[in-house]
Amino acid sequence: EAGVVQSPRYKIIEKKQPVAFWCNPISGHNTLYWYRQNLGQGPELLIRYENEEAVDDSQLPKDRFSAERLKGVDSTLKIQPAELGDSAVYLCASSLHLQTQYFGPGTRLLVL
Amino acid sequence: DQQVKQNSPSLSVQEGRISILNCDYTNSMFDYFLWYKKYPAEGPTFLISISSIKDKNEDGRFTVFLNKSAKHLSLHIVPSQPGDSAVYFCAASKETSYDKVIFGPGTSLSVIP
Lengths: 112, 113
Known about the structure:
The complex is a heterodimer.
Chain A: E1 5-7, E2 10-13, E3 19-24, E4 31-37, E5 44-50, E6 53-56, E7 65-68, E8 75-79, E9 88-95, E10 102-103, E11 107-111
Parallel strand pairs in A: 2-11
Antiparallel strand pairs in A: 1-3, 3-8, 4-5, 4-9, 5-6, 7-8, 9-10, 9-11
Chain B: E1 4-5, E2 10-14, E3 19-25, E4 32-38, E5 45-51, E6 56-59, E7 62-67, E8 72-77, E9 86-94, E10 97-103, E11 107-112
Parallel strand pairs in B: 2-11
Antiparallel strand pairs in B: 1-3, 3-8, 4-5, 4-9, 6-7, 7-8, 9-10, 9-11
């Protein structure tokens, strides 16, 4: 069974440019998460979806970050415009409701 | 304010010996705890968990101990193997929102052959 797929794996952009990350969860998993992991820290939740509904986006910086999960499957996380402090690894995870989370490999973003 | 703390950023252990990774939490509402393991360039993978109704959970070479009064848990790996070298994240959640998992900063374990 395929795991959580994320693309791209790496992205280098200049500040003020837009960037988007894509996630394909494990088939059948209705819950999808986006996390940000800064260097030397653990993952921090940005947004959680139950099917296509964002049920927890309290930690998402809404002035520049947006996310969508059309049709309750794939999801996209966007940053516009990117800032230097956005450099991090962006992790996507999925799970069945209230079950163990399975993580993708992450997208490593570097903002110059 | 860090709710889940792992005060040792790194740990080195000889192959065959016991590895003990420690974790402290501040929120007494947490009642479910997990350990995740992460290799470089990969996402974290679930390792073992424990509910607050237990004080020990064992899975092969991995055992997690929970001391609720001290708000402390530890992961024991016996015997340690070179393939165990990774970053280990302690995480916690509340019964009312198991989907909201709070991660610690991680401990990098190196098992020396």
